[in-house]
């Protein structure tokens, strides 16, 4: 189906998120939307999907004007969407989420869950996804939730499909699968809008590329353009796509993890006898497919996993068994993998979020009273430094674009006195310009002598940052290899092959 | 007369039957029934914004138009309109006139106008200013009555609202008030002390009693994971029967030599002084709730503890990851909440019903407070004015009944409708053709009981 957006304008208060945007997506075309964080990509797609009402402009499907009151209308008109901020119901199972909105019923109005389960299995199999249809969505890590969101959109046989940063937490293999599927759908005549910050993906599948900046279309790019050309178009300046870093000069072993087990709420050992060290001035990347225990490992370091065996110590003091507060006060900076769930208070302002983990410390609090002046100055400074795009520091974090939310979390954690920095998916959803900045900051942190742990499913990021790489598979560390290990070796290790690393 | 009718509103104060111990003992309490049903929906009062330079006027306008404030006002208006319909429908003159509506429609309309305007003007004259009195001093008396009724409502509303902001649903107002009243009352009647000291001690004892009764809920929730709604309901029963027992037992709270389950009167030195002389009932308690409102405002908006309260209320997971001890926060929040509700109990025994208290001393205020907190959107200033509005309904309701024969129940219906409309902003917007607020829907009700993921 042909999709056309004409003069779409969407305002939030005084902010113009979309400014007369025109976009045409032909049937059988993959149309990439590129743009900085906060450029207005998700907003545009949410208008298309009926979640927001545009102030001006029309949506046309096969040249007839549509009026969507809500997502239900958009869905009926044949539009499917993979949301950047997932629209899943945490207390429902995967199968229930997938069938939600077009439930099949058996006699007497009973839900036909078997059909939904079969559908989930069938689509998972096509992708090589490993998703249990009966798992509760709320219990799943973000990576798996992302897969559920994709499965949900694909199960509807939509003729216009919108993918809003679907690959932010997928592994390279999964991303490749997804792109194969996208090509297949395209050959069946589906129109696809694809939003991503990963230029490799853009160049691989895009038929046309439209670049959005500050709510306006600033031009088209050809799919044959180079990465740096695309990056420059996106952020309006030249971007260094590879981090410059000197070889690490590791000091003493600082974080020592010995025989760590983590047992989850269901009594399953999700981290199994893991031992490693991170030295001062070193970046250890933890690679692996989502759901192999990386999340739980980082959470154990922070002290939010209640059941652990073994020991975690930082510069000689034991961390596990301590309260989260003590761990943070010991100088641990932590970027959780799921920013909306664990990293931010959506109804708090940017400024308030920036003091979230220092809610009883100078300079933000004196004698139990908030120091609003100090907080505002600090927030203004961080907003500038981290280039957080928002109307003001009093904007609620929940209203920020995905990438800008991530920047708030990073700004908070990187502006404390650190003895250890643990970051899960630190650049999830942020644009190339900001990735450059964040990577630089992480390398600076390392060079200041802080041990850094980066958990990433993104091999590019792992390879760019790591001095050493630990690969996790099914809760164990398969091996720890040097930072320049070839990708195919890493790929094999991530699939659980132990023999490859000498 | 006034001292009497304030005592226990329409419900009989002395010796309620066991059945009457349940939530709906008194008429105002039943107003809380609709209040408790919409509440478990996920939602929350928007966090207050620290003021900074940003385009302020713009923001204030947005807040008023798009947000909560206008909806509150319109909800009150709608409820009054619905109340008017009820008044007209139940009025005998209107009923008679409508019998021959088609021959003389004017009669019906006239009767409706008579009934409604009469009732609402009685409501106004009973709660704000009585024009039938000659002197200003007499005319203004209803307003002071309103404020007297508002005093405990505001205090308890602040307590309930504070708990809402932390994501907790405190429906244990009854129990906390009873315990507070008993503590303050006991200090009030058993000691002989100089007045300022006696009052201070009695107030502190009452607040402490309420805080402990509330804190117990927080403690049990933090330790065992029990849900605060169940805990507070059960502790209401425990408090009621405990106090009833003590009131029936000579040597505990019962007045010596009296067969009634009632305490001795407060010592002169423990009674709140009247603010404007003995002619008016308004007492020191009102000053205390003004102070409490300011303190709660400071606590929530400017203190680091309040920051943690709000963080836990909005996203306990992120709070936990940020090193905030969520369980402790629940305990503190319930201590504060119980203490504030306790202040309502204190103001009852030391200010309003000083002649000794019975088991009905809470007069359903603990439940009305939920409504007040909802109407005030869990914000201190909002609660303050919501409390005054409800105080006015109480004060005016009686004179409406006395002057026009309109049943007091109408007032309860109006109160309930206000909450109903507030719980359904889209309904209000639809009725008044207001635009949808921009962006993601704002939550208007507190997000009670959002649990931390059990990890
Ligand atoms: N509900 C909302 N209320 C107010 N402002 C909003 C709302 N949603 C988005 N915005 C603002 O609109 C702008 C565009 O946001 P949008 O989410 O569309 O960006 P994006 O291009 O998807 O960015 P990203 O790559 O980071 O996901 C941002 O400045 C954001 O702060
Ligand atoms: Mg986006």
UniProtKB/TrEMBL annotation, chain A:
Its main location: membrane. It holds the Pfam family ABC_tran. GO terms for cellular component: plasma membrane. Residues 3-239, 255-499 form the ABC transporter domain. GO terms for molecular function: ATP binding; ATP hydrolysis activity. Keywords: ATP-binding, Cell membrane, Membrane, Nucleotide-binding, Repeat, Translocase, Transport. The keyword Translocase applies. It is a peripheral membrane protein. It comes from the Bacteria. PROSITE patterns: ABC_TRANSPORTER_1, ABC_TRANSPORTER_2. Gene3D superfamilies: P-loop containing nucleotide triphosphate hydrolases. The keyword Nucleotidyltransferase does not apply. This is Nucleoside ABC transporter ATP-binding protein. The lineage of its organism: Bacteria, Bacillati, Actinomycetota, Actinomycetes, Micrococcales.
UniProtKB/TrEMBL annotation, chain B:
Coiled coil: none annotated. It is found in: Cell membrane. It holds the Pfam family BPD_transp_2. Keywords: Cell membrane, Membrane, Transmembrane, Transmembrane helix. GO terms for molecular function: transmembrane transporter activity. Residues 37-49 have a biased composition (Pro residues). Residues 1-55 are annotated as: Disordered. The chain crosses the membrane at residues 64-88, 109-129, 149-168, 199-220, 229-247, 280-300, 330-350, 356-375, 382-400, 412-434. Its main location: membrane. The keyword Transmembrane helix applies. Residues 10-36 have a biased composition (Low complexity). The keyword Transmembrane helix applies. It comes from the Bacteria. One of its GO terms (cellular component) is plasma membrane. It is a multi-pass membrane protein. This is Nucleoside ABC transporter membrane protein. It comes from Okibacterium fritillariae.
């Amino acid at each position: 189906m042909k999709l056309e957006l004409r003069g779409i304008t969407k305002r939030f208060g005084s902010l113009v998120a979309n400014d007369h945007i025109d976009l045409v997506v032909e049937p059988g075309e993959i149309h990439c939307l590129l743009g900085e964080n906060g450029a207005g990509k998700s907003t545009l797609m949410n208008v298309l999907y009926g979640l927001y009402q545009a102030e001006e402009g029309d949506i046309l499907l096969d040249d007839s004007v549509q009026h969507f009151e809500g997502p239900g209308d958009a869905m009926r008109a044949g539009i499917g969407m993979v949301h950047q901020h997932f629209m899943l119901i945490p207390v429902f199972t995967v199968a229930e989420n997938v069938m939600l909105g077009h439930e099949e019923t058996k006699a007497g109005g009973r839900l036909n869950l078997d059909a939904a389960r079969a559908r989930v299995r069938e689509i998972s199999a096509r992708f090589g996804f490993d998703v249990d249809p009966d798992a509760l969505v709320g219990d799943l890590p973000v990576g798996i939730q992302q897969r559920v969101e994709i499965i949900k959109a694909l199960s509807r046989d939509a003729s216009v499909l919108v993918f809003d940063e679907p690959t932010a937490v997928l592994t390279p293999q999964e991303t490749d699968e997804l792109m194969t599927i996208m090509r297949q759908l395209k050959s069946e005549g589906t129109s696809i809008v694809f939003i991503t910050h990963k230029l490799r993906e853009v160049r691989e599948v895009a038929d046309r590329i439209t670049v959005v900046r500050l709510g306006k279309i600033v031009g088209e790019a050809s799919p044959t353009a180079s990465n740096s050309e695309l990056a420059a178009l996106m952020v309006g300046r030249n971007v260094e796509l590879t981090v410059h870093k000197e070889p690490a000069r590791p000091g003493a072993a600082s974080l020592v993890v010995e025989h760590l087990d983590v047992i989850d709420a269901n009594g399953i050992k999700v981290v199994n006898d893991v031992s490693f060290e991170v030295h001062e001035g070193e970046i250890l990347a933890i690679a692996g497919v989502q759901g192999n225990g990386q999340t739980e490992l980082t959470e154990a370091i922070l002290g939010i996993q209640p059941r652990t065996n073994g020991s975690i110590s930082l510069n000689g003091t034991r961390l596990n068994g301590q309260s989260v507060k003590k761990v943070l006060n010991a100088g641990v900076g932590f970027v959780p993998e799921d920013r909306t769930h664990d990293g931010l208070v959506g109804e708090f302002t940017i400024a308030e979020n920036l003091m979230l983990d220092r809610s009883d410390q100078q300079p933000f609090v004196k004698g139990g009273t908030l120091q609003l002046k100090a907080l505002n100055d600090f927030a203004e400074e961080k907003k500038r430094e981290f280039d957080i795009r928002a109307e003001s520091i009093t904007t609620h974090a929940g209203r920020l674009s995905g990438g800008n939310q991530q920047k708030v979390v990073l700004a908070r954690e990187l502006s404390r006195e650190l003895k250890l920095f643990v970051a899960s998916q630190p650049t999830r959803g942020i644009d190339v310009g900001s990735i450059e900045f964040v990577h630089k900051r992480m390398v600076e942190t390392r060079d200041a002598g802080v041990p850094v742990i980066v958990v990433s499913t993104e091999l590019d990021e792992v390879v760019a940052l790591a001095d050493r790489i630990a690969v996790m598979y099914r809760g164990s560390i398969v091996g720890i290899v040097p930072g320049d290990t070839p990708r195919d070796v890493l790929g094999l290790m991530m699939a659980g092959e132990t023999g490859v690393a000498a | 007369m006034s001292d009497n009718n304030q005592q226990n509103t329409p419900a009989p104060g002395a010796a309620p039957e066991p059945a009457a111990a349940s939530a709906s003992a008194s008429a105002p309490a039943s107003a809380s029934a609709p209040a408790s049903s919409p509440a478990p929906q996920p939602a929350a009062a928007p966090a207050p914004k620290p003021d900074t330079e940003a385009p302020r006027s713009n923001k204030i306008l947005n807040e008023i138009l798009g947000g909560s404030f206008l909806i509150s006002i319109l909800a009150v208006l709608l409820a009054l309109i619905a109340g008017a319909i009820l008044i007209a429908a139940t009025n005998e003159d209107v009923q008679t006139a409508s019998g021959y509506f088609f021959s003389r429609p004017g009669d019906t309309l006239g009767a409706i106008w008579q009934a409604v305007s009469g009732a609402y003007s009685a409501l106004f004259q009973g709660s704000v200013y009585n024009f039938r009195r000659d002197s200003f001093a007499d005319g203004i008396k209803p307003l002071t009555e309103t404020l007297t009724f508002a005093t405990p409502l505001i205090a308890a509303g602040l307590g309930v609202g504070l708990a809402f902001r932390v994501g907790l649903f405190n429906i244990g107002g009854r129990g906390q008030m009873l315990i507070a009243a008993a503590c303050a009352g006991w200090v009030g009647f058993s000691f002989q002390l100089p007045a300022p000291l006696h009052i201070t001690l009695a107030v502190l004892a009452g607040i402490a009693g309420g805080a402990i009764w509330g804190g117990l809920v927080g403690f049990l929730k933090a330790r065992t994971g029990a849900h605060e709604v169940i805990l507070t309901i059960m502790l209401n029963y425990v408090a009621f029967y405990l106090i009833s027992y003590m009131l029936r037992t000579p040597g505990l709270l019962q007045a010596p030599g009296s067969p009634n389950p009632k305490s001795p009167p407060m010592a002169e030195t423990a009674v709140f002084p009247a603010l404007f002389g003995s002619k008016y009932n308004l007492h020191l308690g009102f000053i205390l709730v003004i102070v409490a409102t300011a303190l709660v405002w400071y606590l929530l908006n400017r203190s680091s503890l309040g920051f943690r309260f709000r963080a836990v209320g909005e996203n306990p997971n992120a709070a936990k990851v940020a090193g905030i001890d969520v369980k402790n926060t629940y305990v503190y929040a319930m201590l504060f909440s119980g203490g504030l509700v306790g202040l309502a109990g204190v103001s009852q025994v030391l200010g309003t019903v000083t002649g000794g208290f019975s088991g009905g001393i809470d007069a359903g205020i603990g439940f009305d407070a939920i409504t007040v907190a909802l109407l005030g959107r869990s914000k201190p200033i909002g609660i303050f004015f919501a409390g005054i509005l409800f105080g006015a309904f109480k004060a005016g309701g009686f004179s409406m009944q006395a002057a026009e024969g309109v049943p007091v129940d109408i007032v309860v219906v109006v109160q309930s409708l206000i909450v109903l409309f507030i719980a359904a902003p889209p309904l209000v917007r639809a009725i008044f053709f207001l635009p949808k607020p921009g962006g993601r829907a704002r939550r208007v009700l507190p997000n009670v009981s959002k649990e931390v993921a059990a990890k």
